[in-house]
Amino acid sequence: MKGEKKEEEFVKVCPKCSSLDLKADLTMAFLGETSTLTCNGCGYTNTFFPEVEVGKVKDFMKR
Ligand SMILES: [Zn+2]
């Protein structure tokens, strides 16, 4: 009895517009800082974006 459980994948979503279209800014990572993410949908930038299970993205967007 092992290995039957599916691993859920997580995606980062924009808390402002629920877009999944995010891009990582690696400039800061290069400098040894926490890398920031920018939303291509609304321009929101933060070092932390909420992660949602792939299967629950649609639920997240309904709100
Ligand atoms: Zn956004």
Descriptive key words:
63 residues, alpha+beta, 3-stranded antiparallel beta sheet, two-stranded antiparallel sheet, 17% helix, binds zinc ion
How do you describe this structure in short?
By secondary structure, this protein is an alpha+beta fold. It is built from two helices and five strands, in the order ββαβββα. Residues 14, 16-17, 19, 39, 41-42, 44 line the site of zinc ion (ZN).
Provide structural commentary.
The mean pLDDT is 85. This protein has a domain at 11-54. It has helices spanning 26-30, 57-62, and strands spanning 10-12, 22-25, 36-39, 45-46, 51-53. The chain has 2 helices and 5 strands; from the N terminus they run E-E-H-E-E-E-H. The chain binds zinc ion (ZN). Zinc ion (ZN) binds next to loops. The site of zinc ion (ZN) has 8 residues, from loops.
